[in-house]
Amino acid sequence: MRIRTFSIIAGSMACNARCPFCVAGMTPANGIGPELPEVNWRNFRKACQLARDSGCTTAMITSKGEPTLFPDQITQFLEELKPFNFPLIEMQTNGIPIADLKPVTDEHLKRWYELGLTTIVFSVVSYDPEKNHKNYIPYRPSYIDLPALIKKLHDMGFSVRLTTILAKDFCDSVDEVKKLIAFAKDNKVEQLTCTPVNKPDESEDQNIFTWTAAHHLSPAQVESIKTFFENEGAAVLDLAHGARVYDVGGQNVCLNNCLTVTPDSQEMRSIIFFPDGHVRYTWQYSGAILF
Ligand code: SF4
Q1: What pLDDT, on the 0 to 100 scale, is given for residue 25?
Q2: In 3-state terms, the chain is what percent helix, strand and coil (to 5)?
Q3: Cβ of 66 below 6 Å from ligand 1
Q4: Whether residue 261 has its Cβ less than 6 Å from ligand 1
Q5: Measured distance CA(80)–CA(4) in Å, rounded
Q6: Are 95 and 144 in contact (CB under 8 A)?
Q7: Residue 264: its pLDDT value, please?
Q8: How far apart are CA 90 and CA 125, in angstroms?
Q9: Phi/psi zone of residue 235: left (φ > 0), alpha (ψ -120 to 50 degrees), beta?
């Protein structure tokens, strides 16, 4: 068995954003609630060992909410990861607590860099601050200054990836994708990922299911975006489960699928560490468990 990505669920369900498609609400809670849970560090070390023994080179700190709301816990995860020498350590965030300098301070960022964090992965829905504002923090006067935040993190030595959910009325056409690529290029973003919002078969939250059903791209829209990448980009890497990485005019772009399960796969895309000590291999099925 080869494990490609080791995902670590940090933080709690708490999030400062209001995404109507929030995956956290679409997948089972598996012991994670609004409070910061105790972490089973013994099992965390076992999961690290399993991932490394299975050839995994990437550890991804993520959350069912916003992980950077608990920056000291991020530091603790990075400290525990250190002995296992993962070459790539990434952290998924909406970026807001980092831009706000609250609760993430520059001291946290410096420490995370020293501890080996390589890539900060921002979730966005567009290059357009107004669309990101509407999706993430409609309760605030404006969105964060994303170009300034990317520059600051580059200056500190981090790489940056933008993971973009492609959704109707946000980023839903070849034209919008081109503008997104131009934004990434202008801001020297190392990696860009485009993931069409999924309409899952099962959902624990009817509102999210309804929103995603109304905003998922039609097969024709997905096909035209795919055709654009095939015609305008050079395919540089095929990842598991149909994701393909392209170079489009010098910009790295990955066209991804999300929430896919292929039970007959020879390869697990990822294993996921839950703070209660359980390790699973899908997000949406509690039964997909290793220990
Ligand atoms: S930022 Fe992530 S966790 Fe927070 S609401 Fe959006 S999708 Fe959910």
Answers
A1: 60
A2: 35, 20, 40
A3: yes
A4: no
A5: 20
A6: yes
A7: 47
A8: 20
A9: beta
Bridge-partner residues for 91, per DSSP? 61, 120
- How far apart CA 58 and CA 28 sit, in angstroms, is 24
Q: Which three-class secondary structure string do you get for 47-100?
A: HHHHHHHCCCCEEEEEECCCHHHCHHHHHHHHHHHHHHCCCEEEEEECCHHHHC
Owner of token pair 């299975």: 54
Sorted by sequence, the CB contacts under 8 Å of residue 132 that are 6+ apart come out as 124, 125, 126, 143, 146
pLDDT means over runs of 10, the chain (291 residues): 89 94 73 89 98 95 96 98 98 98 98 98 98 98 98 98 97 98 98 88 74 92 96 92 92 79 53 96 88 96
Contacts by residues 276-279 (CB-CB < 8 Å, ≥ 24 positions apart): 276/30, 276/31, 276/37, 276/38, 276/40, 277/40, 277/42, 277/43, 277/44, 278/30, 278/31, 278/43, 279/43, 279/46, 279/47, 279/50
Alpha helices in the chain (DSSP H): 41-53, 71-81, 96-99, 106-114, 129-136, 146-156, 174-186, 206-215, 219-232
Ligand 1 atom with minimal separation from the 94 CA: 1
* 78 contacts 70 by C-beta, under 8 angstroms: no
Strand partners, 37: none
Pocket test for ligand 1, best of 23, 70, 208 (most atoms within 8 A of CB): 23
In this prediction, residue 265 carries a pLDDT of 47
- The residue whose CA has the least distance to atom 6 of ligand 1 is 19
Q: Is the CB of 24 under 6 A from ligand 1?
A: yes
pLDDT of amino acid 201: 61
